[in-house]
């Protein structure tokens, strides 16, 4: 792996750049990555990714030892160094761990978009329960062999992965499959390998397919209690094909009325495509594949679309933090589909799903978790196509700053606290916070996310 390919992911869920490294900060990041989806810590580079030339090999080794001493239990790491005429850079790779890790002072951290976040007691319990379930993705599948992986599917992955990462794979096919978790050390296919690249994965893992049902009306039953569906499709194969084939059907069924503008025909969609595709991809890659007897289900009614996946919310995720936090039940599936191009950006889809639905004139998505399932419900509103947000009407009084914020929202679609401070640099942050809270109370804007990930959109 090259330094540039590591940096291409950007600082976030799986990359941290320590420009001024300390043992404490390194230990926190190692624990957060091990408890989450894994990641890489870079030493000897600045925030822009340039090698600083200030790092010495013995200093990096000493720093890593000092950081690891603070981890309970010890975090497993891999070491990689890069040298050029500007100096030395070191990459410390951390894999997702099946154990729950803490620091010597007792803190349990997880990696979020805001950085390393300490968990409270309840979230630690949820995370510990998930860790205790083991690494199901890496289990071997009885009766499966290397011949059960599809060479054409693997070739498509390799090609699109190289385009996504901006570099060719410099390893043999089996070596790559081992690196991504598709083969174990003995060359046997894993659960992740069959789901991503299997010729007939449903032969070994029958619950890994998807069912789509289109109902005529708003209820699942027709006259006389008979099934009320007008279309029913089943999708099997590796997950990439399941996603693409079901997405093709959804695009057909989501087309609303057509309008003609000038000489151009414009098909209006019943739902924002991004919101639907995000719900579909999340259901496929985050479901609990240990649960047998149920597949991912998409149920489309005249007034709503329901996407349901087996398995409750993973890790420490709850309805309260689902927008701003991220935890993958199946990190190898997620990473594989990300490198394949089926996931746009790790961990940033739920907030945009909400935004797209609201901006298109629909209600916010509804999330319904149970211990054994999770359902995303998209309801149709008055507006059935994406549109530029209109300036909301308000008969009361707004101050000049708030009017400026609404005008900014009309052009930029969203505004953060930082954006608002740049618009009004001479006003205190607390006053601006109260301005935005007042706009929310008046029903003019909607708050999305929490803490550092908070932003506002026109309602």
Summary of the model, kept short:
The chain is of the alpha+beta class and 459 residues long. It has helices at residues 3-7, 23-35, 57-68, 121-132, 151-165, 173-179, 191-197, 201-204, 239-253, 273-286, 331-340, 349-359, 400-412, 417-423, 429-441; strands at 15-18, 39-43, 71-72, 77-84, 87-94, 102-103, 109-112, 115-118, 210-215, 229-235, 255-261, 264-269, 296-300, 304-310, 366-370, 373-379, 445-448, 455-458. It starts with a helix and ends with a strand.
Detailed description of the structure:
This protein is an alpha+beta fold and about 450 residues long. Helix content is about 35%, strand content about 20%. The strands form six sheets. A six-stranded mixed beta sheet has the order 10-9-13-14-16-15, with helices on one face. Strands 1-2-5-4 form a four-stranded mixed beta sheet. β1, α2 and β2 (about 40-45) form a beta-alpha-beta unit. α2 packs across α3. It is globular, with a radius of gyration of 24 Å. It starts with a helix and ends with a strand.
Indicate the CATH architecture of the largest domain: 2-Layer Sandwich
Q: Give the overall pLDDT as a whole number.
A: 87
- List low-confidence stretches: 384-388
Proportion in β-strands: 15-25%
Give the beta-strand count: 18
**What is the class of the largest domain in the CATH system?**
Alpha Beta
The share of residues in helices is 25-40%
Rg from alpha-carbon coordinates = 24 Å
């Amino acid at each position: 792996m090259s330094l540039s390919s590591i940096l291409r992911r950007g600082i976030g869920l799986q990359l941290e750049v320590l420009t001024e490294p300390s043992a404490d900060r390194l230990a926190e990041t190692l624990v957060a990555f091990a408890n989450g989806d894994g990641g890489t810590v870079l030493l000897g580079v600045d925030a822009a990714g340039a090698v600083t030339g200030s790092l010495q090999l013995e200093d990096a080794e000493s720093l890593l030892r000092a950081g690891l001493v603070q981890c309970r239990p010890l975090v497993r790491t891999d070491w990689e160094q890069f040298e050029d005429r500007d100096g030395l850079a070191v990459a410390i790779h951390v894999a997702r761990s099946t154990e729950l890790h803490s620091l010597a002072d007792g803190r349990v951290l997880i990696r979020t978009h805001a950085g390393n976040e300490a968990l409270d007691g309840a979230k630690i319990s949820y995370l510990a329960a998930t860790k205790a379930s083991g690494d199901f993705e890496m289990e071997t599948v009885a009766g499966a062999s290397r011949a059960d992986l599809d060479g054409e599917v693997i070739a498509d992955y390799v090609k699109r992965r190289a385009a996504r990462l901006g570099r060719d794979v410099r390893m043999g096919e089996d070596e790559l499959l081992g690196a991504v978790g598709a083969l174990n050390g003995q060359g046997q296919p894993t659960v992740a390998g069959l789901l991503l690249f299997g010729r007939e994965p449903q032969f070994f893992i029958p619950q890994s397919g998807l069912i789509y049902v289109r109902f005529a009306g708003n209820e699942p039953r027709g006259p006389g209690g008979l099934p009320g569906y007008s279309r029913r499709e089943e999708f099997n194969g590796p997950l990439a094909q399941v996603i693409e084939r079901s997405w093709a059907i959804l695009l057909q069924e989501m087309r609303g009325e057509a309008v003609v503008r000038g000489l151009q025909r414009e098909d209006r969609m019943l739902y924002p495509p991004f919101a639907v595709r995000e719900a579909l991809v999340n259901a496929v890659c985050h479901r609990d594949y240990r649960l047998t007897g149920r597949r991912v289900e998409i149920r489309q009614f005249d007034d709503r679309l329901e996407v349901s996946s087996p398995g409750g919310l993973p890790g420490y995720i709850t309805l309260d933090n689902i927008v701003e936090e991220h935890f993958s039940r199946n990190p190898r599936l997620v990473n594989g589909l990300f490198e394949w191009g089926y996931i746009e950006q790790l961990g940033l889809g739920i907030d945009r799903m909400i935004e797209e639905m609201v901006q298109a004139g629909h209600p916010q998505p509804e999330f319904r978790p149970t211990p054994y399932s999770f359902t995303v419900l998209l309801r149709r509103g008055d507006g059935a196509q994406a549109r530029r947000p209109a300036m909301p009407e308000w008969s009361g009084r707004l101050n000049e700053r708030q009017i400026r914020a609404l005008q900014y929202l009309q052009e930029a679609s969203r505004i953060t606290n930082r954006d608002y401070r740049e618009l009004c640099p001479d006003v205190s942050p607390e006053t601006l916070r109260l301005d935005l809270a007042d706009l929310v109370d008046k029903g003019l804007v909607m708050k999305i996310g929490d803490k550092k990930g908070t932003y506002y959109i026109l309602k």
